[in-house]
Design a protein that fits this description.
The longest helix has 54 residues, at 51-104. The strands form eight sheets. This protein has a four-stranded antiparallel β-sheet with strand order 7-6-10-11. It is built from 14 helices and 25 strands. The protein is α+β, with helices and mostly antiparallel strands. It has helices spanning 13-40, 51-104, 112-133, 183-187, 246-260, 302-305, 368-377, 415-418, 433-436, 483-496, 537-540, 569-582, 585-638, 642-668; strands spanning 136-137, 140-141, 153-156, 159-162, 192-195, 225-231, 235-239, 273-275, 282-284, 291-296, 312-313, 347-353, 356-362, 382-386, 393-397, 399-400, 403-408, 461-464, 470-473, 505-509, 516-520, 529-532, 547-549, 554-557, 564-565.
């Protein structure tokens, strides 16, 4: 009789069904996953497929996305620099053409009629140059520096003003490479500076801002807590971190002392802590019988910076003699607090630029910010700035083609001189005359026949007074160091010729309009004149372009030749135009020289643009290589191996088919199949 073997495992049919179902389900899921991978071409379609690889792929995706954006930025940057290069090339050609034109208008073949006819050509060159300077790529003005939304060069009355800022606009390309250019690199100076030559040394006042203090160490003052010990009395700390001015500091310290030890300070509040007599630091008005020590808390430097530490204050020692807080000029500084004395304030300063003028009245109560605003309101293209050392002013002429002069208003006040910003003063070097050409004198001349030194040919010019008296002026290099030395030499030569100086004649620097002035007191009925003998000194000093005013004294006022002019390509083109209008051979020659300099500067700017393009090309190649590498790594992690997946898919199909057959066979058996 048949029987079930003892070794057979007894397994209920329901358990067998579940095992088979789980195996078939797992195989079906794996087949479905492979079907999805084969259809998408990706090994990982969701994070759960491979969490580690998915996180790496996420990082790579972000890097590739940034790289794609940078490559688009490279496209934009290279197109912008290409357009810039083209614009600079056309400007370069225009300046070269203008230089050749200037050369052709000198010497043989040039005449007044030809020069007059050439004026319109130069005028069209100026307009074309402005158009090229305002070139843009899409909406990006290429010579605007950081300011690229509007024309960088704008017309300003009869001149042109640059309105851009900075060296250039930068974009995200993984490197600090501007894709625009500041016009200073291409066009030349954007403004001409009058550098103040007077240290205005503002006094310390209760209104002085802490931010403007150099402090005892010269590194500024950082406010925090200070420790105050009053004997007899108490010890306490005062927090000065919220103080903005010396007044805030003085009030905080005084209030704390009067609160803790009411009898320590003399007088009434405020006044127990005030500015010392020298105007350099703080002083404590300590009552007899008390002493006060102020020190820093922990590692702080507040007391030391304010010059309060290092001394014990009492009735005999109200201040720290070694403490000088050395305040600097800022927008809040009042002119009455500057080291000018009482004389120059109030007073008027006259600004002239491009044939237009305006006057600013400086008062003791006026702040530096008010002064800057008042000059800006004149709308002359003139800007006032505090210098880097914060001890004086610089004045900027922002308009190409304009001559800036800063003068006194007359009447005895010398406000511009006191502020160090007058453009024509005794200390003005003659090297800045005539747009930097200086003054050419006759010196060391020789007789053309004998070849021997000829002192008579060293005489520069002759001055004729109103009564016919004449004297010659012989300038040497030592006499043309500055305006003061020129005036001294003219007066010395007048005196050597028997003219009474200053009774009958004196060469002076007027307290009004700029220029060398002759005061004639001889009382003649003629006019004061200057005649060139040798050299070009009379012309270069502005003595041939003068205004004569009869009176007592009769006044001969020379032209201001120390005006401040923007050294730019636009100015050079305008100088050429104006020299052609005047039929001025010397002016045409000088304009041609400036155009050559402008051409070289523009060529240098074009080279800068070219080097930027070259760097962009190298960086682009590096970015593309990095992107390809990232894509390769991502592909290795994410993309499907079709051969391996297809083989596995076929194997799983066989496994599933075998599983189905096995399941069908096992489910068809019963107990009767084992009975024999």
């Amino acid at each position: 009789m048949s029987r079930i073997p003892a070794s057979a495992i007894r397994m209920p049919n329901i358990l067998t069904s579940r095992v088979v179902r789980d195996q078939l389900t797992g195989t079906s899921i794996e087949i479905a996953r492979l079907q999805e991978q084969l259809s998408t071409g990706l090994r990982i379609n969701r994070a759960s497929d491979d969490p580690v690889a998915s996180s790496i792929i996420s990082v790579l995706n972000a890097r590739i996305s940034r790289s794609d954006q940078r490559l688009r930025n490279f496209d934009h940057a290279e197109a912008a620099l290409s357009t810039l290069d083209q614009s600079l090339g056309e400007s370069e050609s225009l300046l070269l053409e203008a230089t050749e034109l200037a050369s052709n208008q000198i010497g043989v073949g040039s005449d007044p009629e030809t020069r007059a006819a050439t004026v319109d050509v130069v005028e069209s060159m100026i307009k074309e140059f402005i158009t090229l300077s305002n070139s843009k790529f899409t909406d990006l003005f290429l010579l605007g520096g950081d300011r690229t939304a509007s024309d960088p060069i704008e017309g300003f009355f009869e001149g042109y003003r640059y309105t851009g800022t900075g060296d250039g606009l930068r974009t995200d390309i993984g490197a600090n490479i501007p894709i625009t250019l500041g016009a200073e690199r291409a066009l030349g100076a954007l403004s001409a500076r009058v550098k103040g030559d007077v240290n205005l040394d503002p006094a310390l006042t209760r209104n002085t801002r802490i931010a403007s203090l150099s402090g005892v160490s010269g590194d500024g003052v950082t406010l925090g807590q200070v420790s105050i010990a009053v004997a007899p009395g108490s010890n306490f700390t005062v927090d000065l971190s919220k103080s903005e001015t010396i007044d805030d500091v003085a009030d905080a310290i005084e209030s704390a002392i009067r609160t803790q030890t009411p009898g320590a300070l003399a007088g009434a509040f405020p006044g127990g802590v005030d500015i010392n007599a020298a105007g350099t630091g703080l002083a404590l008005n300590v009552n007899a019988g008390f002493t006060i020590d102020i020190t820093d808390v922990g590692g702080g430097a507040t007391a030391n910076g304010l010059g309060l530490s290092g001394v014990t204050y009492d009735n005999a020692t109200p201040t720290n003699p070694g403490a000088d807080l050395d305040p600097k000029i800022d927008g809040f500084t009042a002119f009455g607090d500057l080291g000018l004395g009482a004389g120059p304030i109030p007073g008027d300063i006259v600004f002239r630029n491009g044939g237009r003028s305006g006057t600013v009245t400086v008062t003791a109560a006026m702040t530096v910010a008010d002064f800057k605003a008042a000059v800006g309101d004149l709308d002359l293209g003139v800007r006032i700035e505090i210098n880097d050392l914060q001890d004086g002013f610089n004045v900027f002429n922002e308009v190409s083609g304009f001559d800036l002069s800063i003068e006194e208003s007359g009447g005895g006040t010398l406000t511009a001189t006191a502020l160090g910003i007058r453009t024509f003063k005794g200390s003005t070097p003659t090297t800045v005359f005539n747009d930097g050409r200086g003054v050419v004198i006759a010196d060391g001349a020789v007789d053309p026949i004998t070849g021997l030194p000829d002192p008579a040919r060293d005489l520069d010019f002759q001055v004729t007074l109103t009564d016919g008296t004449q004297f010659d002026v012989d300038l040497t290099p030592a006499d043309i160091v500055d305006v003061a030395s020129v005036l001294a030499k003219i007066n010395a030569d007048a005196a050597a010729a028997g003219v009474a100086v200053p009774a009958d004649f004196e060469a002076v620097l007027a307290d009004g309009t700029n220029g060398i002035t002759f005061n004639d007191n001889v009382g003649g009925g003629g006019v004061v004149t200057v005649t060139t003998l040798f050299g070009n000194a009379a012309e270069d000093l502005g003595l041939l372009d003068s205004v004569f005013t009869p009176g007592a004294p009769a006044v001969f006022a020379g032209e201001d030749r120390a005006t401040v002019r923007v050294d730019s390509a636009i100015t050079a083109l305008m100088d050429l135009r104006d020299a052609l209008i005047r039929n001025d051979s010397v002016g045409i020659t000088l304009a041609g020289e400036r155009l050559e300099t402008a051409y070289e500067r523009l060529s240098s700017a074009r080279a800068i643009a070219g080097s930027r393009s070259s760097r962009l090309s190298s960086l682009r190649t590096r970015e593309e290589d990095s992107r390809v590498l990232d894509q390769g790594i991502r592909s290795g992690l994410r993309d499907l191996d079709y051969i391996e997946a297809s083989s596995r898919f076929a194997l799983l199909q066989v496994v599933q088919q075998a599983g189905l057959q096995t399941a069908a066979a096992s489910q068809s058996r019963s107990l009767l199949d084992f009975l024999g």
